[in-house]
Each structure stands twice: as structure tokens, then as C-alpha cells.
Amino acid sequence: MGVELAVSPQHKKVRDRVKRFTRFDLLPSDAVAEAFARGHSEGDPVAERFVAETYHGEMGGEKARALLDKALRVGIANVPDAPESMRALFAEFETIPDWLDPDLIEQGAAVWRRWGYSLGAVGNAGTMDTYTEASLAVPLSLSGGYAGASALHRYLETSRWWLEVCRPGAVLTPGSTAREVSLKVRVMHVSVRARVAAHPEWRSDVHGLPISQSEMMLTLLGGSVGPALGLYALGFLTSPAEMRAVLHFNRYLGHLVGCRVDDMYPATVGDGVRLLYYFDATRKHDSGELGPELVEGFVPSFEPAASVRGFQRVRTLFHLHLQAGYTRLFMLPWNRKNYRLPSGLPGLAFMVARAPLVAVVELLRRVVPAVDRAEQAVAMRSWRRWHAWHIGRREEAFDASKALRR
């Protein structure tokens, strides 16, 4: 049994009107809708067995983390004391799905490289828009990842993963940092899932499992169909073929982080739009005070400290207003109005003014391969520079042993 999901009357009306005039159905098939509801109660059994036996078992977090690091460094075959649950996890992780197309993977990664900083910003704005839902807000609030002062650092951790997986050939290269970080993200999610599921604030009868298969599916759409369509407003002209490629790329990323990408994963961009609409149509709006805690804590985390002066202060304020601008553009207005956020108008004005230039470059890259390569290089260099500037001497931990904050 899955959680109960009901399409709102307003969304039904919009669906009927769109279908009448375009013949495009905004809602998924009954089979996909049922799989999505069922997926709210489904997790990652293979990784869960490993975490229960090691991180949450007698071995403990510190030793489990060291064992995982060793296996990633030298290969699971060279770790004789690895438990069977760990060998099963690595076997699944290292399996190449029969549907994988290496050319599409690289094309999809190239799309991410062209989007660059905008991918992270639009993805984060879209994610904040989902904090109306307790099933998403409770795990983040309890783990503390996107709450209060830690919000920016958690975003930088996620950005590190984005930066690594879209490097040319990275996700298919054994031993790459991209694959290492992906497995650590998977283990971290499983650890948080177990801790939150056992917490008295979690309502399993209403929400199923924390960080469920369905919610992980939404993050994959937030890295493919969502930005592919949304970033048109900022001049990024992603073609239908590129949309399909980035959808395929995200499908493999889902495989790496423990998301089942067979039953309900979109086969087309239209299928992706239907799932996104279905999520919006079945919102419960039950996050209460946790939604504002998470949303209102993120953008202000970009504010410069009182000690920051001169150019560095201007640079910090620029990114603060830019992130606020993305929330104005990519959060639903009726959701955004419920939160106290910076106006976002300066950042929005900058993005709108830049859009024609971005569009010109996007058109040129289709006929001049050198422009395509240059666009990717410039976008990635800028994104990495921003990440390095913010991360400073801190390190991304992807810590699966961290306790909940309350």
C-alpha cells in the first residue's frame, strides 16, 4: 500500500482545459500514479542492510566510514573483511544497466555543464518550493542539513556532487570522484532515512518512508525536465534531443544513488511533466512551521558576515540577490508569498538582462562546435570558482553517521 494522494479540484480543472485544447494530459496514467503513491513507502533495501549492519550496528559510524573509504579506494575485492551486505551494495552499485547508452550519458552531462551555476540555483529554488510538504520538510529539518546556519554548507555539498558527476566521462569511470561521492550520498540518505523513520515527529501512516523512492524521483526530474523547460526563460535553449539526453543522464544518476529508475521513471519529457504536475496536484501543504524554517533560512545564509568588506562583500551580496532572484522566478508565486524572502528583483533583473546574450551563444553553439566547448568550459570554470570561494577550507563530509539535531 502506498500513501493516499488526491488530486485537487483546481488541478483537475486545469488538466481538463489543457487536455481539451491541446490533447495533452497533464496527469500520468493510473499505473504511474499508483507506482508513485506506492513509491512513497519504498526505500533502498540493499543499502539499508549495509547501513543497519555497519553504521547503525556494532561496527559504529567511524569504523564503517573508514571501511567504506577503503573499499572505494582499493576496490571491494581487496577488502577481505567487508561484510556480505557491503559486497551486495557494491555489486548493485557497479552493475551497468542494460538500458545505459554512454553517448546519451555524455550528452546529458554536457547539458549540465552548459547550465552550470544556473542548474544548482534553479534546482534549489524548485526544491524550496516543495517544502510545503511535511514528507520533505521533516527529514531536512530533523537532520539539520538545510536549516539555519548549516544551509549554505549543505548546498555546497550538493553542488560538489553536481560538479563531479557532470565532468566528461566521470560517472562511467571506475574509481572516479563522481562515483565515490554518489555512493556516499546514497549511504547518507539511507542513514538519515532510518533515523528519521524512528523519530516521533515522523508520521509513517501519512508519509510512508522518509527520502522515499518517489521523492528521490522528484529530485531527478528537478535535474532534468524541470530546468530544461524553466531555463528557457533565461536564454538556455535546450533542444528536445538534449532534454531526452539529460533525462537519460539523470536516470543513471538515480541508479547510482539508489533510486529505482524502471517502474515509473519518465520515458519522455512529457512523462516527466506529468509527474511534476501530479506532485503539485497532490500536495498536502502540511509542513506547518518547518516550511518557513527551511525556506527562510536558505537565502539569508548567503548574506555576508559583518566582517566582510570591499569587493568580497559586493560579491557576496550579488550572489545573495541572484539566489533570491531564482526563487522569484522558479518558486510558484502562491507558495513563495507565504515566506519572508529578499525581494529577488535585482537578481531577476540581472538574469533577464543577460538572457538575450545567453540565447545568442546557445544558437551559435549549434553551428560552431568551438562555441559549444567554450560555453561549457566558461560555465564550469565560473561554477567551480564560486564553489571554491564559498567552501574555503571546509570539506564536504557526506556524513552518514551524524545524529539528528533534535
TrEMBL record:
Annotated Pfam families: MPAB_Lcp_cat (PF09995)
GO molecular function annotation: oxidoreductase activity
Source superkingdom: Bacteria
Start and end residues of each ER-bound oxygenase mpaB/mpaB'/Rubber oxygenase catalytic domain: 111-343
Protein name: ER-bound oxygenase mpaB/mpaB'/Rubber oxygenase catalytic domain-containing protein
Protein's organism: Gordonia malaquae NBRC 108250
